[in-house]
Amino acid sequence: MPLSSKSPQKISVMLFGAFSNHCLANAIEPFRAANTIAGRQLYQWRIFSLDGGAVTSSSGLTIATDCWSDVRPAGDLLFVMPGYGFKDLAVPITNQALRAAGKRFSTLVGLDMGAWLLAAAGLLDGRKATIHWDEFTSFAETFPDVEAVEDRFVLEADLATCGGASTAMELTLELIKRQHSAMFALEVGALFMHGERPGLHDPYQRMSADTLVRSAAALMRRTIEDPLSIPELARRLNIDQRSLEDRFQCETAMTPLAVYKAIRLREARRLVELTRLSIAEIAERCGYRNTSAMTRAYRLEFGEPPRVHRKLCP
């Protein structure tokens, strides 16, 4: 599936003391994984703080940062990531930096308690936003001009907010999906086992299209060697086949069968690149009982047969 041929997206992270390591990793690691899967740099990032130097997380991890005022960064995405003590950070110097950054970045992203700082700077007035649920009521009362919504994340063209570490990864995967494709975002998410197993009591019929597709894709990954029929896949997900197909079409513009095939072929590509398994064994591990059939599908998907691809790998 072709990826965007645009130049790398430029990401800056504005970090504050007592930030969450988990949140930072969940926001950035999917971009790193996207670069790895694509085999080229789709995303670039730098980490800043207002004063530069070492910034210490809530768990004591120290991160080196560049000085915001020295570099005055600009680009596609600005992630604003405060931690504990975030209310004390809403001071004139922070507000000024954020308002100026709003003119230099295409999209502002408030992570964890970042929405609070964006709102304090007047950048969320008249806009929808969310925040870590522990502070949701206080946020709504403090900033009545902001339309506070109880969503896991809010994403618009020039503004995004979310609360907590797990939602940071969801937001990042959605950004990747919108720039490239739903299939590519599923592939990135698979590296983190994102959506691997829903809760035992999650009703599939009431899941959003995105959640259902991630759960279905996780089941597909677990059954690569012996692929399920689409009716059996639907049965295991406790949803009728037509509804499953409709949700895949809505979310990925692909059929479940096409996504299943893409997942199997991407596993084949991973095995071609990272192992010395024979092509016949790779075919079998990826659910192909006929090596020639996999080779034909592989060539159509990636532009060259697996043996040629392997020779080109470093």
Automatic annotation (TrEMBL):
Pfam families documented for this protein: DJ-1_PfpI, HTH_18
Domain HTH araC/xylS-type: start-end pairs: 214-312
InterPro entries from the UniProt entry: Class_I_gatase-like, DJ-1/PfpI, Homeodomain-like_sf, HTH_AraC, INH-QAR
Sorted UniProt keywords: Transcription, Transcription regulation
Highest taxon of the lineage: Bacteria
Keyword hit for Transcription: yes
Transcription as UniProt keyword: yes
Name listed for the protein in its UniProt record: Helix-turn-helix domain-containing protein
Organism: Roseibium salinum
